[in-house]
Predict the structure.
Amino acid sequence: MEQFKVVIRRLLSPDVAETFEKKVTEATESQEKRKFTLLFSSIPRLTGKQVMDFSPEELADLKTSRDGFDPEGWTLDRFCRVYLLMQLDPSGGEQAYVGRVEELFDAAEVYEQVALYSALPLYRFPEAFRFRTTEGIRTNITDVFDAVALNNPYPSEQLEEAAWNQMVLKALFMQRPIYRIYGQDQRAGATLAHILSDYAHERWAAGRTVSPELWRCVGPFLDEKLIGDIRLLLKGNDPFREEAAVLACSDSNNPEATEMLQDYPNLTAQVQSGVLSWDSLGKNYDLKR
Amino acid sequence: MKFIDPHVHMVSRTTDDYEAMQKAGVVAVIEPAFWLGQPRTAVGSFKDYYSTLVGWERFRASQFGIRHYCTIGLNSKEANNEALAEQVMELLPLFIYKEGVVGIGEIGYDDQTAAEDKYFRAQIELARETNMPIQIHTPHRDKKTGTIRSMDVCEEHGIDPLTVIVDHNNEETVEEVLNRGYWTAFTIYPNTKMGNERMVEIVKRYGAERMIINSAADWGVSDPLAVPKTAALMLERGISQEEVELVCYKNALEAFGQSGQMKEEDWKNATGVDQTQLFQGNSVLRGGQKAKVDPNTNIVKN
C-alpha cells in the first residue's frame, strides 16, 4: 500500500494528490457505499489517464509487494482505482466484502472492469473470485481480457484446470501474447497440450496460421501425435515456427524430439545459451505483428 | 467533412451501419438511454442496459473507428411505472460519472402525466448536482405544449438553457426554443419527425447558431446516415460549409462537451492512449477480418 502511495504522490500534482487522498480517506473511513462507488467511477477525471512512467526502483518495489504483481504499462487511473480497491474494509466478513466488489463489477464500464480484474490478486478472500475470473475470460473486450489473463498471478493461483485451459486457449484465439501469462509453465498439462494441438489443426484446415507461442504449452507433453505437429512446424522455412519447434523439442524428454534437434544445431545452441527462449520468441513475435 | 450524430440508438443497429457511418464521415455518436420498444419489468434490465451503453456498445463502435458516448436517464414512457421508476432513480448515480457519459437523457415528457413530471424534475435536479448537460425528448403528441413545458420546468429548477439540448423540434417549436436560448435539435427520421428537405429550409430561415441535427436511428425504419445525407443536401442547396459544420458537428460537440467527457482529441488523435486501448481489440472483426461483404459476390470470406 505504501509503495502505491509514493508513486501516486510523485505522479499527481500536489493539489490533486491532496484531493485524491482526502477523497480516499472519506470513502474508506466512512465505508459509505455511495461515496466509494462515485469515487471509483470518477477517478480518471481527477488523475487523468496517462500511461505511468515508473522508475526502475519503484517498479521493483511494487513487484515485491505481491508475488507476480506487475503494473508496468498501466495508466494512472487504473493504478489509483486498484489502490482504492485495496482499501475496501474486510471487517464485515467475506459475504459483505465480496458483495461490495461484485456490485462494482456489475455496473462497471470497460476501464472500471480493467481495474477490477487487475486487482484480483489483491482482494481478500481470493477463492471467492474464481467464478468472476471465468466471466472475465468470457469477455471479447481485449483490454478486459488482458487485465485478467496477462501479467496477473491470480488465474494461475486460483483457477481449476478446465478454466485455466480455457483461458490459455482464448488468449491464443484473441491473438494475445502468451509469454505474458503468469505461471503458465507451472500450470502446463497434457490435456491443454492436446486441446491446443486440435485448435492448430482446425486453423490449418481453414488455411490460417497459429501463433508460434502455442507450442510453448505443448513441448513438455510431446507424444506420438504431438511430435507429428512439430514435424509440420519444421516444414515451410518459417523462422518463428522453426524456433518454436526447437524450443518445444528442448522441453521434451521424448527421444524422437531429441533426435530432431540434431538437424538444428544452431538454434539448439541458442536455446542452450539462453539467447533463444519462449519469452524472447514471444516478445519478437509480438513486435512483428 | 466530419460528422457527429448526437442521438442514435446503436444497440439496435448492425455492423453494416457502423461501417457505412464511418465511411460517410461520422466520427462520434451519442446514444441516449431510451426504452426498448416495450416496457422493462425489472430494475436489473435497466442496469444491464446502462452497462451495455458504457461497455460493450462503446467497444463495438470503437472497432469501426467511431467514438461512442451516451446519456443516461429514465425515459418518460417508463417513468409511468412508479414502483420501477423509484428503483431506477437509485441506479442513476452509479452511472453518471462513468467514462463517456455526456449527459442525462433522454428525459422529458411523453403523455405529460404526473409521474413523468415527477421523474423529469428529479433528473433535472440530478443534472444540476452533477453539472451534466440535459438531453430532452419532446413528445410526439401535443408537442408544442410539451416542449414549452419542458423549458419552463428547466427554468423553474434554475437550469441554464445553454446546458440543455431540446430534441425532436419542428417548424412549430423551433422559434421559441431558439429564442429562449436552448440548443435546438432536430431528428431527421423517415415519415415522422423531420425530413431533410424541410430541415434545409429551417436552417436557411433560422441560421446555424445552436442548431443540431441527428438521426435518432433505432429499431424502427430509420436512417443512420441521416446526418451526412442532410449535410450533403444542405451544401447542395446553398447553405455554407461553415454553417453545415456547425449544425452537423461543432454545435453537438460544444453542447455535450460541457460534460468534460467528449473532446475533439478523442477521435482526432488516433494515437492517444485511449484510442490505442480500444482499437487493439479484434473481437468484432476477428483476426483482421474486414467486415464488408462484397456486394458483387456470393462468397462470404472468413
Notes: The first helix of chain B runs from residue 15 to 23. The longest strand of chain B covers residues 101-108.
